[in-house]
């Protein structure tokens, strides 16, 4: 692993830093889990795209800079260091785009990729169902063939779909062959959230915002042009996204490096708080995650892949995030309850704390990730009584 940056990479990071300094909003945007906040974040996506910073690692033809993985990590570091807004387009950019690149038709790539980089098409991930979260293969929503119209009829219910209340389109799995085995007979669909037969019902979150939604499908027609990958091959298509979500693409270390930097400043400004050990611990873990990411980047650049190690990353970053924010709240004491301009960071520490609590749940719960680590990395037997099979 070589950690020395080339002059070009240093220049890339400096250019990003200069642009972000000029363009990042001076005050935090309202939460993207509110209607106003969602709209403000959508505008920020357009600004990022105008500057050419929305998808640095993508090909130029789709609005990227053709940059490599190292530049992407560098950009993320600069992005979070600058305190830039959370990406409301991330479902599309991080979860859907990698599979559109891999499995999409040229026409789908043309239609959807560019539009997700500037916030003009924002996507919701419609995977979970009331009986199918950790056990995703248990999904019961159905897709029935409609030969006459050249497409499929969707029925069923999805749940916990982030920001589906305001997003434009959704992507998800449906059971297209009820006679096939659990993991077979699933098909991956793309659909507009305002299609006839779709009802989107918001669900309030812990902080009262209505960022989540249930999505009900009542005879919704989707043309063949919006099937992603081959019919019946949805599980394999979907799993190429799950690796991305848990591993590198969703949580580059920049986010945690920036949070620990803010934590250090907070501790330094409150001499009465005695959380030095916890602050140092958070800093060390963020640095460890950073170094591990650089190692992963080296591996991928040398032709390797992330694999089950993505589950280790997921457990690591999600627990680190909770610890960083719990430490911040202890330092702030009762002040952590304040909101608005009189509060430290406009009350963002408490908001970010509430969000950090969801990290061990989304992108596959940490219990499930530990199962994967146990079985695929440590070679332990599946579940059960603790004896080796
Ligand atoms: C902030 C947030 C955003 C989300 N956004 C989306 C989204 O945009 N789209 C979407 O489709 N979904 C989304 N989800 C849903 C998320 O993917 C699911 O909540 C998650 O997969 C867990 O599924 P579940 O809630 O059905 O819990 P369950 O699967 O019912 O699990 C309940 C508990 O049992 C444990 N458990 C289950 N099976 C096992 C096992 N075999 N071994 C050990 N423990 C087990 C789980 O770890 C968990 O602790 C989001 C969730 C959150 C919190």
Proportion of residues in extended strands: 5-15%
Q: Helix fraction?
A: 40-55%
Secondary structure tally: strands? 8
Number of helices: 11
How far apart are the termini? 37 Å
Structural class: alpha+beta
**Unreliable parts:** none
Write a concise synopsis of the structure shown.
With 389 residues, this protein is α+β, with helices and mostly antiparallel strands. It is 44% helix and 13% strand. The strands form 2 sheets. It has a 4-stranded mixed β-sheet. A 4-stranded antiparallel β-sheet has the order 2-3-7-6, with no helix packed on it.
Overall description:
The chain has 11 helices and 8 strands. It is an alpha+beta fold. α7 packs antiparallel against α8 (276-301). The site of flavin-adenine dinucleotide has 17 residues, from α11.
Task: Give the topology.
Blueprint: H1 7-23, H2 35-51, H3 69-81, H4 90-103, H5 106-117, E1 123-125, E2 142-146, E3 151-158, E4 169-175, E5 186-192, E6 198-203, E7 212-223, E8 227-228, H6 234-246, H7 254-269, H8 276-301, H9 309-332, H10 348-356, H11 366-377
Helix pairs in contact: 1-3, 3-7, 4-5, 4-6, 7-8, 7-9, 8-9, 9-10, 9-11
